Amino acid sequence: MPKYYVDETTNNDELHIVHHGECENLEKTESAISLSYHNNISSAVDKAKKLYDNVAGCPECSDSSYE
Ligand SMILES: [Zn+2]
Q1: Of 13, 23, 25, 55, which has the most beta carbons under 10 Å away?
Q2: Residue 46 to residue 30: CA distance in whole angstroms
């Protein structure tokens, strides 16, 4: 099961982006909070929504290219 992270900083759309642990974009974020392990990104996004109201999955890693 992959590990997911949520960016502590909002993007230009004021969204906190959820990333797969191996996403290239995650390496560019200054600080990210671990969401622990999830079967899929929608489960990780649900957990991130307990931290933030404005959450979205990263378009780069929310497809099935990461397992
Ligand atoms: Zn990502």
Answers
A1: 23
A2: 22
pLDDT digits (tens, 9 = 90+) for 14-67: 999 999 999 999 999 999 999 999 999 999 999 999 999 999 999 988 765 555
**Number of domains present in the structure of the chain:** 1
How many angstroms separate the alpha carbon of residue 38 from the centre of ligand 1? 15
Global pTM value: 0.90
* CA of residue 8 to ligand 1 center, whole Å: 13
Does 66 reside within a domain? no
Domain membership of residue 11 (yes or no) is yes
Backbone torsion region of residue 43, taken as left when φ is above 0, otherwise alpha when ψ lies between -120 and 50, otherwise beta:
alpha
